[in-house]
Amino acid sequence: MQEAVKQKAIELLESGKADRVLGWKAGEFFYDLTPAVFTSKEEIEKDFVFSVFSGANLSKYLIKESRKGGKVAAFLKPCDTYSFNQLIKEHRIWKDNVYIVGVACDGMCDIEKIRNAGNKGILSVERDGETLKIDTLYGASTMPRAEALAERCLCCKSRKLVAYDEKLGEDGEVNPDSGRFDKVAELEAMTPDERFEFWRGELSKCIRCNACRDVCPACSCEKCVFDNPNSGVAQKAAVNSFEENLYHIIRAFHVAGRCTDCGECSRVCPQNIPLHLLNRKFIKDINELYGEYQSGADTETKPPLTNFTKEDCEPSIVHERGGKQG
Amino acid sequence: MKKIACVRISELFGAIAGREKLYIPADFRGQAQFLPYQESMELTKSLNTARSAKDLFFPQTENLVGFQVKGKEITVEETRDPGEPFVIFGVRACDARSFEILDRVFLADPVDTFYQTRREHGTVVTMSCSHPEETCFCTAFGIDPSEPGGDVSCWIAGEELYLNANTEKGEALLSGLDLLEDADPAALEHTKAAAKAIADKLPLGKLDLTGFDGEHMLELFNRPEWAKLSESCLGCGTCTFVCPTCQCYDIKDFDTGHGVRRFRCWDSCMYSDFTQMSAGQPRVTQVERFRQRFMHKLVYFPSNNEGIYGCVGCGRCLSRCPISMNIVKVAKTLGEGTK
To answer: Is A239 on the interface with B (CB under 8 A)?
Structure first.
């Protein structure tokens, strides 16, 4: 796929279909790719990488890139296309200036998982079918690719590309049995005290770096309330132990019904807080209370939380249940 | 030099914790961090903590002063944490060096008494690195991970932990620990040589910083590459908050309803309201904010501090940045033009 993606990027520039190409740029190692805009064949040949470490979702960059004039081409994986659709629905991306190449994906690897499997000083990782060949400062080893897959890929909701002008590779289907709500169900089955304990413990690690918000395609406010000194709630750090909890809860509410479950929040968290579980709780509740809904699946359907139908459940039911128990 | 069998390390921790507060790098919910020692707590297997050791001397949030308002009367309240003597065990050479950098900021006139109190109370016990990660590049800053410094340095050789006091504070700590035996420093030769050999092989360990100095300040400041380097920066504060040498803070007032609690908290040059003044934010876009961080570490700090860089090569920003942009990539990109 790496070569096909690269050739496509060069072709788009040379044919004039795009003035710029948004992709992933090689780093010091094989895994530390940086989202980047490419404007020449030479740059692409030298540094453009599509690999199992191209996890970064490029959709959000299109908010700015699509406003710069000229045409920008972007390579999006299936989950990224959901974020793209959602941003189109929210009128955040100027679609006429964007050309989307959908890229089929069978899962991205998480370097932390490879490290946690006992590999220190990792110098390179090569994919050989379903095996990863790892070279380190302390010798070589191998591990199954499946064990290095990111959590969000292990319970991938859909391998279907839902938005593209053209696609590379054969994409897959929506997977209704992804198991992505299993951990949420586990949390729901806890007593309120246990659940409170779980979240207080996780959120106590928060350093308020705002990476989860800054990477989130659903967080596209021009000025976040938490960055606005005039809002009265802007804080750079916890003034008491509840502050960081408040931040995450407000954020989860704000993206409810708009979060596509791309998983970027948990990928970027430097403290490994499972933030995606907050969003999945909202998605699960919406599915159960208002009917199955996947934001970003298309650009037309009205989101349940900003729509009214006679079939909507009564507020009292929402209040009592808050999603199926156990 | 002293030693103790590694299997007795919890006895050692118990003995220290019996005298003063002890922090060790341990795992909490999948992350290594410095935690107050409790019985049966184990050292992490991670090379380093997710957050740096600076937290113990310069915490993310701390109270400065309080004000109580009653009618028209305002009383000033002392809210300063008086602190207590403590030992921080298992600090790596990179973090140990970071304290010297923070000292240059906080202990220079006017002295930051909050930081000073913690430095005076703290005894730093360092640990040599035998298995550095590929993201480590402390050697680029002249740090020897096999001679980690601090008040006491430790090494693990075979099944034994060796401890050597480097300062009076370190002597005081070790002299009170009866369970330690005398040891021969020669026993460490092999361990240190092995650590040096692996440090020599670090892929980023020979990062060339030629030209990053005060003389090239304006030239570096005006380099066009900043725009490209910063183009996908999210503007989050991850790099600054995991950094052992980032020292910027903001002072804020918390309205308690019947007064004010004034506190300080870490700030990040990546944030849109960093050093905001009545005239506005001097660094209007992310390009300028991004540039500030690296100019500070690689140019401004050394030009004010006898050439000492504001980076210790711990590699935390390399492994934590959401978009994998970091000081190494910046130095290599700009370094091309400074030779």
So the answer is: yes
A207 touches chain B (CB under 8 A): yes
Identity of residue B205: G
Cα B4 to the center of its chain, rounded Å = 28
Q: Which residues of B touch A39 (CB under 8 A)?
A: none
Query: B338 — phi, psi (to 5°)?
Result: -100, 0
In A, minimum Cα distance to B198 occurs at A137
B79 touching A (Cβ < 8 Å): no
What is the dihedral angle through the alpha carbons of A176, A180, A184, A185, rounded to the nearest 10 degrees? 50
CB pairs under 8 A, 24+ apart, for B304-312?
B304/B214, B305/B101, B305/B104, B307/B213, B308/B101, B308/B104, B309/B141, B309/B209, B309/B212, B310/B101, B310/B245, B311/B141, B311/B245, B312/B94, B312/B95, B312/B97, B312/B98, B312/B101, B312/B138, B312/B141, B312/B143, B312/B244, B312/B245
Between B28, B234, B318, which is nearest A214 by CB? B234
Least Cα separation, residue B162 to chain A (angstroms): 24
Given a contact cutoff of 8 angstroms between Cβ atoms, the answer to whether A132 and A109 are in contact is yes
What DSSP assignment string belongs to A204-223? TT-----HHHHH-TT---SS
Cα–Cα distance, B245 to B316 (Å, whole number): 11
Strand partners for A72: A20, A98
Could you give the CA distance from residue A307 to residue B300 in angstroms, rounded to a whole number? 54
The answer to whether B59 faces chain A, any CB pair under 8 Å, is: no
pLDDT (tens, 9 = 90+) of chain B, 339 residues, equals: 999 999 999 999 999 999 999 999 999 998 999 999 999 899 999 999 999 999 999 999 999 999 999 999 999 999 998 999 999 999 999 999 999 999 999 999 999 999 999 999 999 999 999 999 999 999 999 999 999 999 999 999 999 999 999 999 999 999 999 999 999 999 999 999 999 999 999 999 999 999 999 999 999 999 999 999 999 999 999 999 999 999 999 998 888 889 998 999 999 999 988 988 888 888 999 999 999 999 999 999 999 999 999 999 999 999 999 999 999 999 999 997 555
Q: Do residues A260 and A82 make contact, with C-beta atoms less than 8 angstroms apart?
A: yes
User: Pairing relation of β-strands A72-76 and A139-144?
Assistant: unpaired
What is the spatial distance between Cα B335 and Cα B315, in angstroms, rounded to a whole number? 19
Half-sphere exposure of A46 (CA within 13 A, CB side): 8
Radius of gyration of chain B (CA): 22
Strands B61-70 and A122-128 turn out to be unpaired
- For residue B331, give Cα distances in angstroms to A49, A227, B118, B271, B294: 22, 30, 33, 22, 9
Q: Which residue in the block uniquely carries the two structure tokens 């992490």?
A: B44
CB neighbour list of residue A230: distance below 8 Å, 6 or more residues apart: none
Cβ pairs A/B, distance under 8 A: 130
Look-up: residue for tokens 């207080």? A200
Q: Does B234 contact chain A (CB < 8 Å)?
A: yes
